[in-house]
């Protein structure tokens, strides 16, 4: 695609140049191109202009200038998102937070830290690990992904089964609203839970410029078990048995034979040979509790033909290596692939996996399954050869049909990757027009001009002027001066 | 004319009596819808006749918040009392808003599960959400908004809308559940909700410290303990009285962990029963308590909050580790005394909210940071100001 900047970009660029330090505004076409996509590389757009603000005030300034010129803007952290949430606009400004990476405050007595949005997820944990704490949400990209991006996407991770998502671990945010005001949203404040609405809004309600996160105490004991099963059905039965026994592990992950094959090819993880499925179960908490739960877990995994227990941190890392490499690893067994993200109720897993098998056979497209089994979050990897005519289209069909399966079974079209630009068209499968219009009332309150990351999440924008209700015009009480309308 | 509009919906309607008052304001009628469609029909009728409405559940917190500017209809959701789906294998439940927390607990316990949200058994799911009420175990499990995974709401114009779903992990679309949780009925009616559940803990123990001389330090030790307590609560029945503290340990090896907690604390007794004050409910939803204040603060600010409470003759109960205490006058109270006490609390705590008080003049909410944005949200959801107008922060 060739950049086609809107006429408003040139005067805005001049205004940005005079307002920001020289190296904070990028217009060089070659450098602009490095920002043309996020982790979802098949959506690309070269941004009209890129800014790299260093402070919250500079972010607010850029947003206010965008408002003055009527130009849309998109925020970007590390660009690791998998739904195109940070896909730039050719007619807009990309606001990159990578220069805002200071940890501003660590308050262990109150178990919180205040960080700038460009700080990586893992950097928070690294800053407090030697004092026995960590930041719980752990998306697979945690070494690189930014906390600002985590807030926008409400990121999860393997351990969110027990510990929850970003929204459960963010105590406050300072944000720049879409009209350029700096506002603090705090869980302790009276009033609407705007923080809860903001986290996970995918950059459509503004940009986080400071994030106050909760720090968690590192658990006393961690036990990681690798259980190998002959079939995915047997593995699935073990998952149901564990949950049914009232155990809430920190994580339960499953990989099928094809995903194992890929991981072996990529990182030689040495999972038990002949496994139709492997299950990684991690228990953590007080030592006495973990010990008792582990004894129970052994019984519940009696269908496994091999059970390995990681003896130390190095062995635990070895168990996780295969799982964490799985997305990238399928590149070893397939020239191209689509990473899907959908959710089904855990008890529907066997039926949905069987249906995915049928889809795969029907379309001649291989599907490797890697998933957070504990919470029913599937990550099917749809494999195809992009050199083969029509294969990409068939893969798209299979990938889309998997989302249909998720919706049919009462699940979700995304568990953690977000809607972004990629899945906006699937939203009407999950929600009615009224549902989507009602959600967009929030958008209209925050961003009536629709300048903050437009075109993401919702398939069709709501016109904020059209207010629901039978009566239009001024309320009689307001007219008579008896009440003030807010 | 207004009554005819309501009668036309076919929804059960009766004239209101003094007992139906919302924070002192008696509505004209009480509507008793039995389905979400009927809720929608009532709201459409209210829109047509410009009638103001307040949703109500068990009525345990109906005296919380400011009196409504106007209230024509009390929407009593008691008949929406069905547990729609308990998917035990998925640890998820879907319920109608009028189900009481007690009834829900009974259904879930039959499958060895619970909604880990401490609320009075007579309170409804809808009312618990609308007031964002939370209890001791929020320290471990989070508050109502953290356990809610899906919601069905009815807007002022009758629109029925859903967000979230019935799976725990789900990031599709905006989370209206969080917005409606704690909104005091000012954005619309919560009609249905879905929650994530937890297995009922096999065992429980309390570590009880009768006289905690240094409550902040003790609370910090308990919160940081590897025994992982689910709750740490303190209680002071009146000014000058000793501070009692107790920690709840739930789950496997509870006895062993509670003993470890006692060793770390260097004080207290381990017991299979809670201390008597743990079960008392004045701090939660007291129909006989006319004045109730909630202080929210960082755990390190506890000493200041306790001092302010002492100086202004307030008794208190709550969590020093979550930074949430409920306070109530130990003796006689006047509007002036309450205002002075709240002002002192606001100096020491992050926020002090007057949940309930019969006084018109008292500033119930204190400073509200993002008020202009909140007003814009209200304007979008309820432009006609019919939904519990005036009940909420900033006169929303």
From TrEMBL, chain B:
<dbReference type="GO" id="GO:0071949">
    <property type="term" value="F:FAD binding"/>
</dbReference>
<feature type="domain" description="FAD-binding PCMH-type">
    <location>
        <begin position="22"/>
        <end position="200"/>
    </location>
</feature>
<protein>
    <submittedName>
        <fullName>FAD-binding oxidoreductase</fullName>
    </submittedName>
</protein>
<dbReference type="InterPro" id="IPR016169">
    <property type="entry name" value="FAD-bd_PCMH_sub2"/>
</dbReference>
<dbReference type="InterPro" id="IPR016164">
    <property type="entry name" value="FAD-linked_Oxase-like_C"/>
</dbReference>
<dbReference type="InterPro" id="IPR036318">
    <property type="entry name" value="FAD-bd_PCMH-like_sf"/>
</dbReference>
<keyword id="KW-0285">Flavoprotein</keyword>
<dbReference type="Pfam" id="PF01565">
    <property type="entry name" value="FAD_binding_4"/>
</dbReference>
<dbReference type="InterPro" id="IPR006094">
    <property type="entry name" value="Oxid_FAD_bind_N"/>
</dbReference>
<dbReference type="GO" id="GO:0003824">
    <property type="term" value="F:catalytic activity"/>
</dbReference>
<dbReference type="InterPro" id="IPR016166">
    <property type="entry name" value="FAD-bd_PCMH"/>
</dbReference>
<keyword id="KW-0274">FAD</keyword>
């Amino acid at each position: 695609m060739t950049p086609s900047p809107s006429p408003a970009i040139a005067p805005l660029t001049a205004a940005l140049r005079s307002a920001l330090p020289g190296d904070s505004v990028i217009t060089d076409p070659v450098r602009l191109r490095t920002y043309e996509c996020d982790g979802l590389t098949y959506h690309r757009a070269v941004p009209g202009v890129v800014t790299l603000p260093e402070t919250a005030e500079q972010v607010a300034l850029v947003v206010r200038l965008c408002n003055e010129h009527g130009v849309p803007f998109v925020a970007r952290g590390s660009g690791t998102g998998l739904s195109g949430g940070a896909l730039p606009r050719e007619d807009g400004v990309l606001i990159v937070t990578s220069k805002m990476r200071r940890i501003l405050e660590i308050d262990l007595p109150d178990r919180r830290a205040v960080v700038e949005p460009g700080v990586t997820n893992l950097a928070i944990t690294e800053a407090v690990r030697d004092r026995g704490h960590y930041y719980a949400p752990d998306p697979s990209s945690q070494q690189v992904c930014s906390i600002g991006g985590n807030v926008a996407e409400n990121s999860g991770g393997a351990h969110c089964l027990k510990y929850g998502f970003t929204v459960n671990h963010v105590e406050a945010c300072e944000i720049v609203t879409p009209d350029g005001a700096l506002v603090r949203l705090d869980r302790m404040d009276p009033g609407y839970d705007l923080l809860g609405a903001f986290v996970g809004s995918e950059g459509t309600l503004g940009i986080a410029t400071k994030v106050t996160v909760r720090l968690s105490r590192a658990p006393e004991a961690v036990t990681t078990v690798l259980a190998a099963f002959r079939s995915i059905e047997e593995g699935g039965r073990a998952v149901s048995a564990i949950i049914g026994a009232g155990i809430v592990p920190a994580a339960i992950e499953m990989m099928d034979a094809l995903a194992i094959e890929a991981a072996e090819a990529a990182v030689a993880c040495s999972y038990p040979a002949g496994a139709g499925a492997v299950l990684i179960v991690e228990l953590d908490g007080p030592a006495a509790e973990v010990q008792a739960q582990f004894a129970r877990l052994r019984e519940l995994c009696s269908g496994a033909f091999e059970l390995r227990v990681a003896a130390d941190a190095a062995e635990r890392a070895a168990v996780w290596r295969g799982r964490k490499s799985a997305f990238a690893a399928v590149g070893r067994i397939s020239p191209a692939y689509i990473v899907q993200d959908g959710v089904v109720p855990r008890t529907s897993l066997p039926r949905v996996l069987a249906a995915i098998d049928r889809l795969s056979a029907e379309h001649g497209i291989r599907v490797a399954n890697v998933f957070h089994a504990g919470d029913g979050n599937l990550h099917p990897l749809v494999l195809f050869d992009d050199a083969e005519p029509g294969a990409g289209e068939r893969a798209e069909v299979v990938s889309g049909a998997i989302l249909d399966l998720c919706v049919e079974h009462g699940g979700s079209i995304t568990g953690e990757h977000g809607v972004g630009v990629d899945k906006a068209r699937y939203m009407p499968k999950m929600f009615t027009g009224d549902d989507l219009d009602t959600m967009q009332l929030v958008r209209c309150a925050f961003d009536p001009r629709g300048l903050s990351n437009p075109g993401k999440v919702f398939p069709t924008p709501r016109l904020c002027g059209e207010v629901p209700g039978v009566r239009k015009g001024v309320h009689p009480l307001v007219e008579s001066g008896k009440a003030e309308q807010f | 004319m207004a009554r005819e509009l309501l009668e036309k919906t076919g929804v059960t309607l009766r004239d209101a009596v003094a007992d139906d008052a919302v924070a002192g304001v008696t509505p004209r009628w009480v509507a008793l819808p039995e389905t979400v469609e009927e809720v929608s029909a009532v709201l459409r009728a209210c829109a047509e006749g410009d009638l103001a409405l307040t949703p109500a559940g068990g009525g345990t917190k109906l005296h919380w918040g400011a009196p409504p500017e106007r209230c024509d209809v009390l929407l009593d959701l008691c008949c929406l009392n069905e547990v729609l789906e308990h998917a035990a294998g998925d640890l998820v439940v879907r319920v109608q808003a009028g189900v009481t927390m007690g009834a829900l607990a009974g259904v879930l316990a039959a499958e060895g599960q619970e909604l880990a949200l401490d609320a009075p058994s007579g309170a409804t799911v809808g009312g618990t959400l609308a007031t964002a009420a939370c209890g001791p175990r929020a320290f471990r499990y989070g508050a109502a908004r953290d356990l809610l995974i899906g919601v069905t709401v009815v807007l002022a114009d009758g629109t029925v809308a859903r967000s979230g779903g019935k799976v725990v992990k789900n990031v599709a679309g905006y989370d209206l559940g969080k917005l409606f949780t704690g909104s005091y009925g000012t954005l619309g009616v919560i009609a249905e909700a879905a929650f994530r559940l937890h297995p009922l803990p096999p065992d429980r123990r309390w570590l009880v410290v009768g006289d905690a001389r240094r409550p902040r330090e003790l609370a910090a030790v308990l919160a940081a303990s590897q025994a992982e307590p689910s709750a740490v609560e303190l209680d002071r029945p009146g000014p000058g009285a000793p501070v009692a503290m107790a920690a709840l340990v739930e789950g496997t090896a509870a006895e062993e962990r509670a003993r470890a907690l006692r060793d770390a604390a260097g004080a207290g007794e381990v017991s299979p029963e809670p201390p008597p004050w743990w079960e008392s409910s004045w701090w939660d939803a007291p129909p006989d308590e006319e004045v109730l204040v909630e202080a929210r603060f960082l755990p390190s600010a506890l000493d200041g909050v306790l001092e302010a409470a002492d100086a202004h003759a307030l008794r208190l109960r709550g969590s020093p580790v979550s930074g949430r205490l409920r306070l109530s006058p130990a003796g006689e109270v006047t509007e002036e005394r309450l205002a002075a006490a709240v002002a002192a609390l606001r100096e020491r705590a992050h926020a002090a909210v007057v949940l309930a008080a019969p006084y018109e003049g008292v500033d119930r909410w204190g400073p509200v940071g993002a008020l202009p944005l909140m007003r814009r949200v209200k304007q979008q959801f309820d432009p006609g100001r019919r939904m519990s107008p005036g009940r909420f922060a900033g006169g929303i």
